[in-house]
Amino acid sequence: MLTVTTVNVNGLRAASKKGFVPWLAETAADVICLQEVRAELDQLPVEVRAPEGWFATYAPAAAKGRAGVALLTRREPDAVRVGFGSAEFDTSGRYVEADLPGVTVASLYLPSGEVGTDRQDEKERFMAEFLPYLVELKGKAAADGREVVVCGDWNIAHQEVDLKNWKANQKKAGFLPEERAWLTRVLDEAGYRDVVRTLHPDVAGPYSWWSYRGKAFDNDAGWRIDYHMATPTLASRALKAYVERAESYDRRWSDHAPVTVTYEQ
Amino acid sequence: MLTVTTVNVNGLRAASKKGFVPWLAETAADVICLQEVRAELDQLPVEVRAPEGWFATYAPAAAKGRAGVALLTRREPDAVRVGFGSAEFDTSGRYVEADLPGVTVASLYLPSGEVGTDRQDEKERFMAEFLPYLVELKGKAAADGREVVVCGDWNIAHQEVDLKNWKANQKKAGFLPEERAWLTRVLDEAGYRDVVRTLHPDVAGPYSWWSYRGKAFDNDAGWRIDYHMATPTLASRALKAYVERAESYDRRWSDHAPVTVTYEQ
DNA sequence: CATTCTAAG
DNA sequence: CTTAAAATG
């Protein structure tokens, strides 16, 4: 059994003050993929920089206070790689992967974007570069007889069922036709499986992100943008999935909820 | 009797959340000179933007969130003037004056500065422009048979007795020889009186500012940089002076304390 | 609406 | 150490 959690922490320093530390102490996960750490190593409290019982692999962004991904693993990885061979993005704190026995686990933080801005152009460049890498990653892993799961904040809701207000968001970044089509290519061309959707084909959501603005959380006006994208064999071994939505607005320590999948080994 | 208070609020929005509002409700002052308001009018809660029983004259800086002075008067001023005829400083939220019967009261926020920076150059330019204005102001007032008091944060401690650690601060902005000499000229050349010092010639302080850094407040490592500079006749009418140091670190609503003087009329 | 950085103090 | 803005999400 391998339990993998992914969660965008929206600033690990802030999250650590609001409940991330006890959450970490109680989780049953074997691997945790973090996004939006937004800190240098030495800015983090020691309980999260080097948590007891975990191996921590941090990939901060070159720009202070931005992005940043990490992997927490209960056992030491056989290998760790930061970035995916992109001159533009490898120092931007958006991708890290680790080899564990039989499986490569990655933490991805895809750029956010907003229509008509440079950020959206950046998001599109990332998508264009990252899709071929997914294909390559899957090929290398297959040659090695290993499975792959790329977890993280993909910043795109795939289908209408993946966000509460899909009608109002058809021209919004995160639910644009071209972004949705790109996610379809991740599945159909690169050959990954959306593990949570595969386990729960017909439910709305389960959402994993609610804006801090307005009453989005209380109205459950959420988006499903945090995914486990796994190679088919690993996906077929998924036993259960769970989105850990906080009980109330003020018990949250991030605007995202942890998304956990348990895989049979 | 005319009671005048001056206080640098270090952000009136923050101060309003921490105790400025009840302080204002209970003060016996007739005129309050505020510095470092750091807000536009419409960013302020209505209880301070238009407090009941007061006339409020705000002179915000053109730069958002910076400087800003104001006058609160229990009666409506006969006239109000923003700035002192300086192309550089009249829109910088550093000076406002109001005519009340027999007396002109001004709120001044002299630039802060730091040795070796552009800010210090700015402070020096302000000083160079402001001294002649003080002379002019006094002359016009005399011709009109009125007194003058320029209250505010002058950002200079005059003598060794005006700050706790004068030895360690001899090369620090706020206690440089040239700044101290300039304050002497305000007294000797422009002919103003330092009202609080005149009433209390021999005491240490009373300090009106304690840095937020370190334990400055608890150690009373303060500076006397907030002054009532009055024309001699008005100064001679000062009956008592009072610096309202907070009872404890966390009952403060600013790093400065209100400095209040009661004048006989 | 929240996090972090920066400039300023 | 604190305020407030700005950029980002």
Automatic annotation (TrEMBL), chains A, B:
Pfam families from the UniProt entry: Exo_endo_phos (PF03372)
Domain of life: Bacteria
Cofactor list: Mg(2+)
Signal peptide positions on this chain: none
Protein family according to the UniProt entry: Belongs to the DNA repair enzymes AP/ExoA family.
Name under which the protein is recorded: Exodeoxyribonuclease III
Organism name: Streptomyces ochraceiscleroticus
Record-linked InterPro entries: AP_endonuc_1, Endo/exonu/phosph_ase_sf, Endo/exonuclease/phosphatase, ExoIII-like
